[in-house]
Amino acid sequence: MPISYYNPKQSIRLSAYADTIVLEPDGREQRLRAIRFGGYPEMVRAMSDAIYAGATLEAEIAGETVLLACEPKKYERHLSHDGIYAEATILSLDEEDSAQEQEQDGQTAAELPPRKCVLFCPAGDRRALFEALDRKTSVPLIPEFQDYVLDELQRRRFLKPLRVISIRERLEAWLLLCKKDDANIVKVLEDGLKSGTICIPGTVQNPRGFDGVHSVTSYLSAFGVTVAERIRNQFRPLFDPAAEQLSPEILRINDYIRAHAGYSLYPAQLAVAESVKRKLSEGKSAFIVAECGSGKTKIGAAALAAHALKMDFIRVNPMNRVKKPKPIQHNANFYSAEEAEKLIAAVHGDTIEFPVMMAAYYGLRRSEIAGLRWRAIDFKSNRITIERTVTQAIVDGERKIIAKDRAKNKSSCRSLPLMPQFKKILLQMKQQQETNRKLCGNCYHESEYVYVNPLGVPYTPDFITDHFRKYLKKAGFRKITFHELRHSCASMLLKQGVGMKDIQAWLGHSTYNTTANLYAHLDSESKVSVGTVMENLLDLSSALESA
After folding, report:
1. How far is residue 528's CA from residue 532's CA, in Å, rounded to a whole number?
2. Are residues 277 and 363 in the same domain?
């Protein structure tokens, strides 16, 4: 299907070929909800920018020219290319924030228009549609409610089919309307339970619905006769330590760890290792999902070694012949306080100014600086929360920023005081971003990050590293890495008498040993000054004369 965009004022004409288009009939307009198209890379990128900016496209559908109205900045874009041919997939974003903004303007929940969400599923697959619906809402939906919920939402016009034109696949798209807190979907569910049209499997029928249910205990008492059994059946573990024994291979590996490392895996870690080994024995891959510090590396290594023993890949543990290396003391390179002050003064007005200040003053990692969001800065209570990092990865041939909702480890998630100088700097940066947003209009890249360029595009950790190195060389400063500004922060704190434990919390190290191993040589230097003080306090001349 040919699609085109024409702007006579700027003499711009773009054209591409789409294989899938999803439309929402909206009066006389056809509102674009999703599209997939391809062509030359430059043309595809320009067309996707036009859609994102809210342009109106023309499409030839079944011999008819159809106008496609686009909503500015309300699409998610995925681009891929092989150098010659490019393909773009544009998907409509769910309306998550509009209701909140309108509520702040004084509208009540009943007056607020419902937010719109788009659901996709294979044609005729009601199960997939129900699962997509379940992912979009916080309402407790179970498979037994499928037909009732889907039919009732359509009857009440909260679930509407969208027009799908595709030459590649059989696809359905639906528009889901959700009121604040999903109140309309909750009402559908409550009406079904009260009328007896649906019921929770294995529960006592209660025509009063949730009357008298005010706690989890009362809910389970009224409705949860077989809830535990259903959970057990649905989430049956790969290995049940209460009913089964660990395999000889896992026990052998754990004995080796105990003999050579001085510790054993915890029972829960052994159970996970046994489960992973069983998946490997089936010729399947296994993923361990757990919190930081749970021992995923140890578990995976134990499971892999046990699997190798089981399959006779190895007969003797090859690690028996490996000599354990001695730990190497790392002496961190750093700037003195005088050098740090000169650097901060020199970078004023440069792009690298903000990262330099944050690393030298707060000891932040480059990923923490790039991942700092405005919501993490509380200007009222004067706190900065370090909770998110970003990294880079190549996806579909393009370098993209990958955000992580967690920092490097548990200790890295920390709250730091927002000092008056930094508060003033951040407020100035926020005001500058608002000015840039007005000047750039639709060209401005909306994001929630603090460290962005004039067009709103977030800077990457690699940019910080590269630009810092180039700046030091250009300005004639002594060569250090950007990460070593973090060491500089620690050294300045130590020389001012701040203890290792406080420095650990300030820098977000996972353990005290990490901090001590890095800065032990600096700590010993500070102890020299303490010795000088003691020498001045206590006169040992009499002891020296007698010796």
Report:
1. 6
2. no
At residue 192, what is the residue type? G
Structure tokens, 64: 């008819």
Name the domain boundary from 38, 65, 92: 92
Please count the other Cβ atoms lying within 10 Å of the Cβ belonging to residue 524: 9
Residue the block writes with tokens 């191993």:
517
Domain that holds residue 458: 337-507
**210 belongs to a structural domain:** no
pLDDT exceeds cutoff 70 at 320: no
Check whether residue 263 and residue 343 sit in a common domain: no
Residues 21 and 79 both lie in one domain: yes
Query: Is 60 exceeded by the pLDDT of residue 543?
Result: no
The closest alpha carbon to 203, from 224, 234, 218, belongs to 224
pLDDT tens profile 462-478: 889 889 999 989 988 98
- pLDDT of 530 reads 44
Per-residue pLDDT at 53 = 80
Quickly state the pLDDT bin for 539 (edges 50, 70, 90). Answer: very low
pLDDT, tens digit (0-9, with 9 covering 90-100), for 222-269: 555 556 666 666 667 788 887 888 888 888 888 888 887 777 888 888
CA atoms of 147 and 97, how far apart (whole Å): 30
Q: Which residues of 410-431 are buried (b: 16+ CB within 10 A; e: fewer)?
A: ebbebebebeeebeeebeeeee
| Rounded distance between C-alpha atoms, residue 281 and residue 220, angstroms | 39
pLDDT, tens only, 499-515: 777 777 777 766 655 55
Could you give the number of structural domains in the chain?
4
| Cα separation, 53 vs 74, whole angstroms | 9
d(CA 125, CA 129): 6
CA distances from 89 to 6, 18, 51, 174, 244 (A): 20, 10, 11, 18, 49
For 275, the 3-state DSSP assignment is helix
Encoding tokens for residue 325? 């290396």
Burial (CB count <10 Å: 0-12, 13-18, 19+), residue 267:
exposed
CATH code: domain of residue 500: 1.10.443.10
Radius of gyration of the chain (CA): 31
pLDDT exceeds cutoff 60 at 69: yes
Name the CA dihedral angle for 33, 90, 21, 171, rounded to a multiple of 10 degrees: -90
Q: What is the 3-state secondary structure (H, E, C) of 350-385?
A: CCCHHHHHHHHHHCCCHHHHHCCEHHHEECCCCEEE
Q: Do residues 357 and 290 share a domain?
A: no
Last residue of a domain, one of 321, 346, 379: 321
φ/ψ of residue 422, rounded to 5 = -70, -35
Give the integer Cα–Cα distance in Å for 407 and 370.
12
User: How many whole angstroms separate alpha carbon 417 and alpha carbon 48?
Assistant: 42
